[in-house]
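Notes on consecutive records. When two proteins share a document, each keeps its own sequence and its own token line. Never mix them. Below: protein one.
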Amino acid sequence: MRTPFLLSTAGGAEDVTAFFLLILSLSLVAIWAWSLFHCLLNERIDTNKKVLGVVLIMTLAHLGSIIYFFLPRAAESQDALPS
């Protein structure tokens, strides 16, 4: 019977490194997918900026997603705020 992945004592450093790389990879893919869907579905972004955002996200992959995340956003309109 084989010992579960995280309880294994053989090759401990390699297992921990592989685990953290897996977590990092999944996080980067999640950020990439979120930024792509956010750019495509956000109604406050005009068409030209959507095209630029999608091209940026798709060509630069994770770096493009991080750049998109930190781009300034237009403030929400005052009509949407409760009185």
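Protein two starts on the next line and is unrelated to protein one.
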Amino acid sequence: MRLIIISIAILAFAASGFGQAPAPNCNNDPKFRQFDFWVGEWDVKDAEGKPAGESSITGDLNGCVIFEHFRAGDYSGKSINIYDRTDGKWHQTWVDITGVLTEYTGGTEDGKMVYVANEVRQGKAVVLKMTFTKLENGSVRQFGEISTDGGKTWQTRYDLTYSRKRPSSSAEILSRDARVSSAEVRLQIIVDEKPGKKREEQRAGEFTKNDFLVLENGKEKKISSFSTAKAGPPVYVGLLMGPSSAQKKWLGGLKGAAKDFVYSLTRSRENFAAFMTFDNKMVLRQGFTNRLDVLDAAIDSAESAGPETALYDSIWVFSNEQLDKVPGSRAIVIFTDGEDTISKAKIEDAIEIAQRTGTTIYCISTGGGYVVSQPGTDAKKIHDENSTNLRRLCESTGGKAFFPDDTVGLDKALAEVFWDLLSQYTINYSTDLCEANGARKIEVRFRDPGLHERFLIRTKRSPSSELANSEVLNK
């Protein structure tokens, strides 16, 4: 049995309207995504580094709206932020417990979000300005100013820094009933065939709730809800392409394979893909969309990269900026030789943020193996440090690393990734937080022992906050 720390995510419920035409999906419009760097759970400090409060920034309504809830002791305030299609501007409406209402209007300037409000205070006209800046470490600076001369001169009102909250353990509560100290737990699993079994023998997406058994500390738990990848939320997959020593020889074939993969991903249902390249800089060539024409154009725009590579930085940035806010299942497919020469982030940082955002990483190695059928090359026998790191990235997030020798192996690897994405299941059950002093071992099995001879159950890792000491034993 393999020991894996589980992930459990917070469950939110939303009411849906009836008898209305489908609302536009703002997730695909880059203008609505300009302020996404502010989305997250934050600790807020002042200019001296002292705690100033905490803030929860969330997206909602098909990605059209960003909600803010700021708390500092007994004080609290909320805002609603939206890009208005009609005037092409961003708007924020701020309210707080003192009865203050402030209306801001603005937009992006050099990657910063700048809001301005014109008000009358104590009989005098004043201009308020807020500037939000994303910092290199992923934090956000909010700088507030006031002008009493129509914007000619400015005085500082506040200077705040938002730092992302870190998970405190390896599991999260979906929902809690304080009266009985119970919690709803979510397990995300992947069903895979055992080595040596033919892929067509697997019933991907055909397992039901009755096929699985969940044990907590040896006791069977009733599954409260169950969903499959085919019937659940959409899948969001980021394709990240980096340089390698064999890049000039594999780039053309790699582009074709990537476009075929995107076609398979988006043709059967509303899944989404994005495309980023990285060397000494990271370029998001296309954000999440299911339009094949723009995805194909983005992939075709990739060029031979320079000698430097920032593999871990690219994982961190893409997970933090693109995947942290999407509503469905999340994955990254990386085409790389595993080399990293200039990243500020370490491999542990890349793994941590992938786990925190619930992202599965798949690596397609281009390090010497895939050189368009170069004679004498056997990538499967590569056991260098880069290959070890690729395996670690994938296994730590529930994914797989592949080392293809040629175009045929490349196509097979991407087919395996596609099959994996369709073989995911989400299982929810209720647990008693008071049992076993918080320590628990959770085992996911097939009810039919014969299925264990053909299939493996893998568990995706994610961050957690309250079910410390929770582990999943997979067979």
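For the record: The CA atoms of residues 242 and 278 lie 5 Å apart.
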